[in-house]
């Protein structure tokens, strides 16, 4: 799990560094006043809809067919201008989703899944397509996702939370609209790609009569692919 996450992070980092290097080299002759500087900070919020295929569809999932809550996210971020129209954006966020079911001998059972993403995106503002005070942009990025899984049982003692991490990729589209000289509001769409691994203990019934069942540990890959829609308020410097 840890080696896979590190390899994914290194892959995303390599893409980012190559993209930055090529872009900076191609812009080297431009006015230096447009080069590296602190651009803005802001806050985003919206809806993220991870696939969670195992939880929602697998026959071994206790939560198959249950309704999962809408995953609301919030994120604080800062932006830096690398060269004209090319922006680096770093963010720290939070999201959660939960579902309820009933399990024999455990009573009402609630599952809470929370994610804390640390993200880095590269964004290109398409100045030629600017319309009045609205500028479209596109981008790519990646994130290190810290994830926690909690169960709450009605009739049993609750187990300890399970913590893990994974790396996700991002593609994004957005519109930046100026409200004033220092404030903008953005509408954006992202698509996340990636998954995380979780281990479970399952009971296996013995085919031999009068022989007790056994327990085995299995690991599932759970998809986090899905769209993310949001709005951002930024303060520009």
Any overview of this molecule?
It is a single chain. This protein is mostly beta strands and 237 residues long. Helix content is 13%, strand content 59%. The chain has 2 helices and 10 strands; from the N terminus they run H-E-H-E-E-E-E-E-E-E-E-E. The strands form 2 sheets. It has an 8-stranded antiparallel β-barrel with strand order 1-2-3-4-5-6-7-10. The chain has a two-stranded antiparallel ribbon with strand order 8-9. A hairpin with an 8-residue loop joins strand 4 and strand 5. The radius of gyration is 22 Å and the shape is elongated. The two termini are 41 Å apart.
Summarize this, please?
With 237 residues, the chain is mostly beta strands.
Defining key terms:
two-stranded antiparallel ribbon, mainly beta, 2 helices, about 15% helix, elongated
Secondary structure layout:
Layout: H1 2-26, E1 37-48, H2 53-57, E2 71-83, E3 86-103, E4 107-125, E5 134-153, E6 162-178, E7 183-193, E8 195-204, E9 214-223, E10 226-236
Antiparallel strand pairs: 1-2, 1-10, 2-3, 3-4, 4-5, 5-6, 6-7, 7-10, 8-9
Structural class: mainly beta
Please mark out the parts with pLDDT under 50 across 5 or more consecutive residues, or reply none: 1-32
Radius of gyration: 22 Å
- Largest pleated sheet: 8 strands, antiparallel, barrel
Share of helical residues: 10-25%
